[in-house]
Fold this sequence. Notes:
By secondary structure, the protein is an alpha+beta fold. It folds into three domains: about 5-70, Alpha-Beta Plaits (2-Layer Sandwich); about 80-200 and about 270-345, no CATH class; about 205-265 and about 350-385, no CATH class. It contains 16 helices and 14 strands. Helix 10 runs parallel beside helix 15 (about 365-375). The structure holds flavin-adenine dinucleotide (FAD). The site of flavin-adenine dinucleotide (FAD) has 33 residues, from helix 5, strand 5, strand 7 and strand 12.
Amino acid sequence: MGDIGGQVYTVVPKDECCGCGACCAGCPTGAIRMEPDGEGFLYPVMADKSLCTDCGKCARVCPVLRAKDQKADRAEEGPAFYAVVNNDREVLAASSSGGAFTLFAQKILSEGGAVFGAALSADCRKVEHICVEDEVGLEKLRRSKYVQSDMGTCYQQAEKLLKAGRQVLFTGTACQIEGLKGFLGEDYPGLWCADIICFGVPSPKLWERYIHYREEQTGAPVRKVIFRDKISGWANSSLTVEFAGGDIHSEKQSENLYMRAFQRRIALRPCCYQCSFKGTCRIADVTIGDLWGLNAVLPEWNDDKGVSLLMVRGDRGQTLFEQVKENCRWQAIDGEEALRHNPMAVKSASRPPRRDKVFRKLDRMSFDLLIQKYSNNSATFRRRVWRVLHRLGLC
Ligand SMILES: Cc1cc2nc3c(=O)[nH]c(=O)nc-3n(C[C@H](O)[C@H](O)[C@H](O)COP(=O)(O)OP(=O)(O)OC[C@H]3O[C@@H](n4cnc5c(N)ncnc54)[C@H](O)[C@@H]3O)c2cc1C
């Protein structure tokens, strides 16, 4: 994965581009393609200037511009908040929070519909959006993958299915759902949208580096990755990596270097530090996250197996939720209290000054030394104290 070869073509400043790919999918002449920059995030690039007719469609479909213009069809009324746990214990164990996503996905599949969401590629090096039409495929979409996913041609595939009268559940981050809506440009009765609460999306290049580092450490190719593995519980979940030959490396998220880089906010896409899509008034019918405020809002439910925080919007959101209620344990909850414990639903992560250094050194340092150096709060604190003492001539 190298630096962008062509000219970056964003209709907003590069730091604001969310990489959803709506401009590329919407371009009627195919003049735009998505390419990774030096940090590994995808950006639109003018592939062939001679094909551009200046029609302006790329700007019309851009979700960041739409959010600025406030033209998007966002629900104005606040959502209803629920605690949700999937009745199927196997699905719950294989889901990041309470398995709310699978409730909706199975409903759409049972009606002959299709579900779009993020999956790991076969070699686990990439996260890509895909379309699945059966239970086997659904397994690939389960669990959060803490890497920005590549939308590929999913917007176009969804449009084709919707035009053919099929039911479609489209899932992803709020910016991806807004990108889809901008691309489609009209409402389809068969379209249901579920977005996730999103802290921010880490760099695909950093993820590739992590997989490479693990393979070097073990001496075997990675075969499977399990994000948010609940072997040590929901609150203290692990990142588990399985290798060809049977070796397994499993570490609590709090100890894992990749997850540390994510949680310390040093590897996120630039736009995530000023996300246009945070808040409770969103375009998706339902929003799913972890109910981190469980002990405050519903302590008697806490068995450390996972509970979803579900936001349900408008008549369509309620219609969708009504159809899955019999398959889960659910309860209406105080949204304000729930959000107090999940601030990333409504505000962007702050941008640490060392974030840019991480990316400047990404090609020059080994993965473990890089993340140890820039994710270690206590080391940063010690360095700061040392600098102050040095300036004062005390050491
Ligand atoms: C990068 C990222 C940051 C997140 N930050 C928060 C947070 O700060 N607070 C919070 O409460 N929840 C956060 N979540 C959401 C949370 O981790 C769960 O995804 C959510 O609770 C759904 O869980 P589930 O048990 O219903 O279903 P699961 O089966 O665990 O989730 C699967 C769903 O997540 C989607 N998904 C997985 N990875 C990605 C991806 N890379 N890009 C887009 N969609 C993806 C799938 O398409 C599918 O819809 C984050 C998720 C991701 C991917």
